[in-house]
Amino acid sequence: MSLITTHVLDTSTGTPAAGIQVLLRGPDQRQIATGTTDEDGRIGELGPESLSPGTYELIFATGEHFDARGLEHFFPQVTLAFTVEASAGHYHVPLLLSPFGYTTYRGS
C-alpha cells in the first residue's frame, strides 16, 4: 500500500472530483509520483510504501476540473505541503474544493 493517499471532493456540487491530476513532490522538489483521481475522487496508490522524513507536497491541477465544467475559478492549482515523520504510518490528505476556496486536513 502507498504511504500517501488522497481524496478530492467538489463542495460546490457535493460530489467527488474525478479526473484531477495530482503530483507528489519530495523535499528536494523532485517528482516522486503522479496520479489521477478516480470516479470517487480518490487516489489510493500515490508513491511508494515508505518515504524518508521531510516536507512533501501534493500539487492538484484544480483549474482543469473547473475549466472542463465551464466554471470561473480562482486557483489553477492547489499545493499542499505536509511533513512526513519517521514513525508515522499512513498519510491520507483530503482536499475539499470549490471554485473560490479549498480546505484540507490529515485524514485517516
What does this structure look like?
With 108 residues, the chain is mainly β. The chain has one domain: Transthyretin/hydroxyisourate hydrolase domain (Immunoglobulin-like), CATH 2.60.40.180. The chain has 1 helix and 9 strands; from the N terminus they run E-E-E-E-E-E-H-E-E-E. Strands 1, 2, 5, 8 and 9 form a 5-stranded mixed beta sheet that branches. A 4-stranded antiparallel beta sheet has the order 4-3-6-7, with no helix packed on it. The longest helix is centred in the middle third of the chain and has 7 residues. The protein is elongated.
Number of helices: 1
Structural class: mainly beta
Q: Over the alpha carbons, how many angstroms does the gyration radius reach?
A: 13 Å
Total domain modules: 1
Give the biggest sheet: 5 strands, mixed
Looking at the structure, what is the overall shape?
A: elongated
Q: Overall mean pLDDT score?
A: 95
Order of helices and strands: EEEEEEHEEE
Contiguous uncertain segments of 5+ residues: none
Question: In which range does the helix fraction lie?
Answer: under 10%
CATH superfamily: Transthyretin/hydroxyisourate hydrolase domain
CATH architecture: Sandwich
Distance between the termini: 14 Å
Instruction: Tell me what portion of residues adopts beta-strand conformation.
Output: 35-45%
Catalytic activity: 5-hydroxyisourate + H2O = 5-hydroxy-2-oxo-4-ureido-2,5-dihydro-1H-imidazole-5-carboxylate + H(+)
Keywords: Hydrolase, Purine metabolism
GO molecular function: hydroxyisourate hydrolase activity
Domain Transthyretin/hydroxyisourate hydrolase: 4-107
